């Protein structure tokens, strides 16, 4: 069973995923890292080809994970990955979805100085509000579990996920 981390940028998916991987020995896969390894920096991909092309690359990375039958991994998805229902179907075949959320101010403070390309042409505050509102219903309907990372360290978030997975494992064993 894979642990699939979903949520808006800046909620801690990659950071928490790496910690979970280190603590559990599970393989860590970041769809963004896989895309960059094969195609170059995301900011350059988006600048040259647009978000639509990036989303195609993201779907291909997810299809690869499914095709390779990767199991017992921590998978950090891009913030928009779950907006494509096929990506959700593919990852749900063998994964539990953990939605990482945080309040808007915390998200903005986490992403303000990053080199992540803008999702819209608006300022970061307006963009975060707009995109979060668009995506939140899909995030909520897709998630198996929701963890608010606003006041948690990445290690505390990883611990919460491990506790849930331990309970799931015990439940499945009985």
From TrEMBL:
One GO molecular-function entry: ATP binding
Domain of life: Archaea
Entry's Gene Ontology cellular component terms: cytosol
EC primary class: transferase
GO biological processes: amino acid biosynthetic process; aromatic amino acid family biosynthetic process; chorismate biosynthetic process
Family: Belongs to the shikimate kinase family.
Protein name as catalogued: shikimate kinase
The species this protein was found in: Candidatus Altarchaeum hamiconexum
